[in-house]
Design brief:
The protein has 537 residues and is α/β, with parallel strands linked by helices. Helix content is 21%, strand content 25%. The strands form six sheets. Strands 2-5-6-7-8-9-10-11 form an eight-stranded parallel β-barrel, surrounded by six helices. A six-stranded antiparallel beta sheet has the order 14-18-19-25-21-22, with helices on one face. A hairpin with a 2-residue loop joins strand 3 and strand 4. The structure holds alpha-L-arabinofuranose. Alpha-L-arabinofuranose binds next to loops.
Amino acid sequence: MTTRRRFLKSAGIGLGAFAALRPLRAADAEVEVNPAQPGVQINPHIYGHFIEHLGGVIYDGIWVGRNAKIANVDGIRKQFVDDMKRIATPNLRWPGGCFADGYHWRDGIGAPGKRPRTYNYWENRMPKGLHAVESNQFGIHEFMRLCRLVGAEPYVAANVGSGTPQEFHDWVSYCNAPAGTISLADERAANGDKAPFNVKYWGVGNESWGCGGNMTGGEYATEYRKYISQFPAYLQPFWVATGPRGHSADGDVGWTEGFFAGLQNVRGLGVRVDGFALHYYTDFRQTAEDGAKFDEKGWYAVLHKGIHIEKVMNDHWSIMGKYDPQHRTKFVIDEWGNWYRGGTELGPEYILSQTMTLRDALHTAMTFDIFNRHAEKIEMANVAQTINCLHSLFAAAGDKYARTPAYYVFEMYRPHMGGQSVPLKISLPEMTVPILEGTAKIPGLSGSASLRDKNLTVTLTNPSLKESVSTRIRLSGGARLREGRATVLTHDDMRATNSFERPDEVKLAALSVEAAGDSATLTIPKQAVVAVSLQLA
Ligand code: AHR
């Protein structure tokens, strides 16, 4: 049972009835926003993506092949391209993940028929009798084609764990050297791309504390220095250093201390770290928690653990501030999402895929609200992973395809991209909720706000499985409202999902909002995410 007190209840609301709510008499929650005092810009890259050569992510999920019967653009699944455009995908991180530190980029260029079949890191996770043979049909040219189709900026994770600085630098030159200059640029042109790819974001390895080399923070600092010192400078790069395993019991603060300490007192040209790759999985692998079948405790446990990312960010940010008081280094949260124990895969070879439900959509929204509220700390974030994997927006197998409930949150939050973050104050008591072991407190309502020109976007999540929240959004600072609109994502069943058979089970609906003077009022259904768009006069 939740302990939140209700002043007003709207009973018996079905999905189709949101527009017919009775006028509100009083509000349970007050949300105060001051659009006259906007903060920093929310980097659009916060709404970024991650795709890896893992299970069914690249092959089948994205790459169906040029001769496939499935609608495709040069071998890339067309529906995927269309949907990624629809959410204004800002970037794509590739080729891994753990795959990246075993990947040799030359295997993925040249005539497709002549590319080698190679070992894939994920072989050890494949069920008996199935193999993760890397066909190398999707290499840097295909990746760049995908980025261009979608309108996304490439973010390439380079091989530090089993590669060399030279291999890394050659890849950078192959991507970025101007046409007709060095031989690697000629080779790129011969392979179909005369114009440079101009890749700015480079990951210097991935999870170097684990599959990327089993290093300590100090050891990695030494490698990092080597990998960046002779970096080919065709354009100003944005270097992303491996950050902590934020979902560790202690938040992995030792990694951050060790890495930044290892960069101190270095003579010479100075060492720049543009981005620091924090990973945070809402990790239930060691529990019985299932992606599809769960109860009230599981619902709240996932939301509770999900919002712990805020503390993890704050802890690492303060360590980074000791070494970098100006905070030149920003977070690149290049892997985040829910990770259940397994058992709901799309099929045996689709390793790490899992069912996504309404619960994951609320988790997504609460995570984005945290990111928006900490916009000054974050350059980029990448959901892990976009299709056929852990916290996915899409599921695809052959000609079957569905958007998951999480996809719709990306659609709802799109207006935040590039907006100026606006502080908001929510007055509603915390809820005491059951989790897997005991109880915990979570916010009764969480949210974020941003401003673009005269359009104020307020996103709010009501995590309660029991009660709706009548809400009044009040503008301080003298602003007045011209009009308001809202969309809602919810379902009567907390476990609702979009399957291949019922792909539209969870989808967006319009929600009634009354906007006048300095206030907008609406009722947020239980277990729901709401995006309110307010036009200022
Ligand atoms: O996203 C799945 C895996 O999780 C990635 O390959 C790795 O970086 C992380 O441990």
